[in-house]
Specification:
Strand order of the largest sheet: 1-2-5-4-3
Helix content: 55-70%
Distance between the termini: 34 Å
Strand content: 5-15%
Radius of gyration: 20 Å
Number of helices: 16
Number of strands: 5
Structural class: alpha+beta
Shape: globular
Length: 315
């Protein structure tokens, strides 16, 4: 890692690692880095007393606003859960599900939107539910990709900072879905075998196929869901990765988790899945992740890996 601050950020961003000693200057830098990488609540919990009073007050104000928005989104999630109990084929993924099931302290995993993964036949009922709550479907006037990306974005005119997304598939780009599909059916099938394993693969796919592994929070989600797996899950993991077509992405995430957070079982599992990482897999390493997007080289490396993902045949 090029910057000393990167090592501090990694040490502080692990939700289950005790706080380390940092100087006031390192604390200030860590706040900026944590904000850029989506892990601010974890860092502030650990180093808050070292921050200036004015900054601490501002961070507390921001936290209060986030809590209000998250409570609003949880209310919507509860309404979706009621419909699911009545037979609606949908499930809330990521945000509140991770906070409740993968993080020891729910406040470490904040969220500003609600993600609902739904079967095609559930979309009409969800549209009725969200419309009744005052939400409106956002459609671009030109070149709208809502249908092709299988991703609906619902916004509320009175609450512009929140978003509800209804996904038909967590892999949004059609060219990537030729190799990997992760919709409601796949999540339900994986959840029937192991809810923890389904949650883990949701995070892997979200980080590497929904995004380009561009911020540390995505990898911390993988870290935390990996920690929830038991021996049976470890046995099943390589086979499920092959079945889903995400051996490449799973090995990449686990190798990074093992290297950055010193999680030896993750590094060992990465080698079980991909014994000899290709040069393309090595495009993304800890340095490129932490330098994204301030380093042009890191941005290019992540985009090259995405180009490689388009070319990889499904095994």
């Amino acid at each position: 890692m090029r910057r000393a601050g990167d090592k501090v950020l990694i040490a502080l961003a692990d939700p289950e690692r005790p706080a380390i000693e940092v100087t006031p200057a390192q604390a200030l830098q860590s706040v900026d880095d944590a904000r850029a990488h989506g892990v601010l609540p974890i860092i502030v919990r650990k180093i808050g007393p070292l921050l200036p009073d004015s900054m601490r007050a501002e961070l507390q104000r921001e936290a209060g606003e986030r809590i209000g928005l998250m409570l609003h989104l949880r209310t919507i999630g509860a309404k979706v859960a009621d419909r699911v109990a009545g037979g609606l084929q949908a499930v809330v993924v990521k945000g509140p599900d991770l906070a409740d099931n993968a993080y020891r302290l729910r406040g470490d995993r904040t969220f500003g939107d609600l993600d609902i993964l739904a079967a095609p036949e559930a979309h009409a009922a969800l549209a009725e539910l969200l419309g009744g709550l005052g939400y409106q479907l956002y459609l671009r006037p030109r070149l709208d990709h809502t249908e092709s990306n299988q991703e609906q974005k619902w916004f509320h005119p009175g609450i512009p900072s929140v978003l509800v997304e209804v996904h038909g598939n967590l892999v949004h780009y059609q060219a990537l879905r030729r190799r990997v599909s992760f919709g409601y059916a796949e999540v339900r099938r994986g959840g029937a075998q192991s809810p923890a394993l389904a949650r883990f693969f949701t995070c892997v796919i979200h980080a590497t196929l929904g995004h380009k592994l561009h911020e540390l929070r995505l990898l911390v989600d993988v870290l935390q869901t990996f920690r929830q797996l038991d021996d049976a899950d470890f046995t099943a993991l390589p086979g499920m990765a092959r079945e889903l077509g995400v051996s490449l992405e799973t090995a990449l995430c686990l190798r990074l988790v093992g290297a950055l957070f010193t999680i030896e079982p993750a590094a060992e599992m990465a080698l079980r899945i991909e014994n000899k990482p290709s040069v393309f897999t090595r495009l993304i390493d800890g340095e490129s992740l932490l330098e994204f997007p301030r380093s042009g080289v890191a941005v290019v490396r992540h985009h090259l890996f995405r180009a490689y993902q388009y070319l990889v045949p499904r095994r």
